[in-house]
Amino acid sequence: MYICSSEHLSSRVTTVEEIQRIKGLFPEDCTFEIVVYLRRQDELFLGCVVESIKAGASLQEVQDYKAVFTRKTYGKSYFQYEELLNHWGMVFGTSALIVRVFEKDQLHNGDVVADFMQILGINIPVSDINIQKKNITLSPEILLNFQEICDIHPHISRYKMAEYLARIDPFPKGGLIPAEDLSAFYSLFDEGNGRIARQYFHRDYLFTESPKYRYFDSSNSAKVTQAKAKIIQLFDEYLAKNALLP
User: Fold this and answer.
1) How far apart are CA 80 and CA 57, in angstroms?
2) Please, what are the averages of pLDDT over each run of 10 residues along the chain (246 residues)?
3) CATH 3.40.50.300 residue window(s) in the chain
4) Cα dihedral sign for 94, 98, 100, 105?
5) CATH number 3.90.960.10 given to 8-131+179-213
6) Which of 89, 38, 14, 90 is nearest to 205 (CA)?
7) Are 175 and 140 within 8 A, CB to CB?
8) How distant is the alpha carbon of residue 22 from its chain centre?
9) Cα–Cα distance between 11 and 189 in angstroms, integer?
10) What is the pTM of this model?
């Protein structure tokens, strides 16, 4: 049995020709099962914004959701799940697709790893699953000041900086994209999501959760300045206390 798992299979492998090249890496007599986890597009977009800022992009470069449709990587097919499933179905056959919804209530034992293991026929208790989370969640206040803090401490890698800041982050989770923009973005996929729901789940809706969202207005200079001062103070205290090295 071969297992090939990577988020880049949806973000970077975007055309039928590219998917065919993936298939060509395996023996011709292989029987395939393609497991696909679908996340609400607005939440996925927020995650892309976070990771882009942590990688060095500015908020201005990533906040326009309409720009998604002009990109190849992390572009239209990354969010338009109907196109994604059609492309993989054209290469491996629709019957090979196992479509899952990335929501806790729709996953086996509420965990994506446990869910994937169950599909493989491997039953592992959630208590035995110990996988380090790679994507670090930061508050919008931290994200807004991330680049400046990296510039102040160039000897600390961006990944380590995100790890350290997450430990001292005093603000609740949220985002830097206005809620009305997220709603407008999500609504662009209503029809496609409905067709997927009816084809693979025999219902009219694909996602059941409506996540709560806290928006931090980056144009509020007073709040931005206040948050920045607090973050720098807490981080300086953390550095001094832990005597951190690069």
Assistant:
1) 23
2) 87 93 92 96 94 91 89 85 96 96 92 89 72 78 94 92 94 94 95 97 92 91 94 92 66
3) 8-131+179-213
4) positive
5) no
6) 38
7) yes
8) 23
9) 17
10) 0.89
